[in-house]
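User:
Hi there, any thoughts?
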Amino acid sequence: MLDAHQLNVFLTASETLNFTAAARQLHMTQPSVSQHIQALEQHFQTELFVRKGRQMVLTDAGEALVPLARRLVDWSVRIDETMESLRGEVYGHLKVGCSTTSGKYVLPFLLTSFMQRHPQVTATCQVTPRRQAVEDLCDGLVHLALASPTEFCSTVEFCKFISDPIQLIAPLNHPWASRTSIEPEELLEAEFIMREEGSGTFEVSARGLENVGISVDQLHTVLTLGNSEAIALAVEEGLGVGFVSRIVVTRLASGRVAPIQVCGLRMQQDVYIGRNNYLPGTTAQNAFWDFATDPTNPVLHKLTSRDFEIVSLEPSVT
């Protein structure tokens, strides 16, 4: 009979492709990891790993085993946590993916409050590009994800979470800083610091500009950066103007950059929380979903009243 612990050892080895690194991660010895892998290979009567020069790689059989092993290990974890929860406790390791600037600031507050309620829960927050965050959720690598996906995975349930306004900012000594508002065509005269194409901020900015008759390609982009915090810092240093999440302005750059109002331009990024309904939910995952989507959650209302726009949690979509 298959052993969930052996399969977990195999999964860790498949991620590290190094038995010594897997042993460190699992707090085991390297010979013990090797023995577990050998036992699985004997059970299946096929090799799961092979060496190519100095590198270890998965065989075709090993590649095929990864998603199946992950599913069995997830079920094993769920069984343990469900039986434990029968004693009235929520526990386990919660893995949350995050792809948005706003999510990076919301998650710590939510997780802190949640873990104070459930002290037997530990958590890991993985910040990745949004496509990766959704793919990780579809693949079962994270339990939940905060993202602004343009395409929904058929197995994932998404629920609108918050609306994050996107703000144009300029250096304090910029000519726009002393004005109440500017006209859209004036944007063509400025030097811009932009997010990379494919990011949520870039796409929201592009759509918003299009609504006021401006193509993002018409902007004079002098610098492209991979996160909003870096853009705020570059704007503060006087390199140009840029579009960033409002929370970056209020939390990191308040008083050091000037928010600029553009006539007719309103931009916001909708952030969703998602879970994979195809995979078994752990007790920690289910409890956090209920906590995070609770419309009366005081933590969420405190955050949205200051940095975001409050939204009614819409019916979930798949």
About this structure: The longest helix spans residues 60-85. The chain has three domains: 4-85, 92-162+270-306, 163-268.
